[in-house]
Amino acid sequence: MVAAFAPYAANEHHSRGRRYDEPSSIYRGEYQRDRDRIIHSTAFRRLVYKTQVFVNHEGDLYRTRLTHSLEVSQVGRTVAVALQLNEPLTEAICLAHDLGHTPFGHAGQDTLNACMRDYGGFEHNLQSLRVVDELEEKYADFSGLNLMFETREGILKHCSTRNARALGDVGERFLARKQPGLEAQIANIADAIAYNNHDVDDGFRAGLLSLEQLREQPLFGNNYDEVHRRYPQLDDRRLIYEIIRRMIGAVVSDLIEETGRRIAAASPASIDDVREAGKPLVSMSEAMYEQHMSLKRFLHEHLYSHEQKLAMTREVQAMVQDLFSVYMDDVGTMPDQFARAARSAAGSARARIVADYIAGMTDRYAISAHESLTG
Ligand code: MG
User: Fold this and answer.
1) Which of 48, 142, 230, 316 lies in disulfide reach of 104, CB 3.0 to 4.6 Å?
2) CATH superfamily entry for domain 16-210+304-309
3) Ligand 1 being an ion, which residues bring their Cβ within 5 A of it?
């Protein structure tokens, strides 16, 4: 596959490759194959019933982890193409970034992490890598999806030093304090751009955020003023959409332009120069970053910590804690495949199998499992 990529883009011909050798495809590039493997994975299909912010049964229009991942991918691809970077790789990383997420969003992740405190903890980012490296069972010859190094590098956004040591090649950069490739850097920021914007939409729809509150945010407020001036008769729903699309447009354009400047200044000759650059080259301008962070803090304060959400959080915490302790006490209450593996394991290894099982659950599966175990 020949594409007009910049010299510092990820390139399958200079890749660190797959863990297990496979013949190449006639029709698809290696990162296209990775993207396809991710879309065909079981974990990807489960994202449709996993919470982003609003629990799945709260309403049909709220983002789920699947639609969130698709929105991340759309943002990421735009930026990658504009900067002549590797679009299929960017898309693959974006689509895979939340594969390891637990049911019930951050409340689920934090609770499972607390349950796993004595067993090495639980981190959804690391779990996403575990899903593509180990847990998917799709191939006769190996466990996992056998993705390219650069895709795995991008999926693993953060990592503790202790975990990095255990991860081998893909953990090295955390020990050497290096950056990942630009496609991975894009996916990371595309995630934040996507949720900042869609959570405004979902929060407003849920009635947890008001126009008055939102207008105090410069990113929202400036666009509000402009849209309101041009279309004074617009109803609130359409007004919000018009503002959000302008917000995404402004942030993405700023990101492309600022990153272009930073790449020009650093003039990397290869992806390895990008890795050695000392800091990420993909970045918004300082002014835009401040507005973006202000909105993010606002969402934390007024949406994610809203009393209505906290009530749901407490319910979810109890559910995940119950599931964890029931399965740890009697591994035979898990399905056969997990029960068998857990019986032949002890301590942290056993707890990890329980965590894998719980993390893989969709919201509604977890709710019904909890009901049948606790009555
Ligand atoms: Mg995400």
Assistant:
1) 316
2) Hypothetical protein af1432 (1.10.3210.10)
3) 98, 191
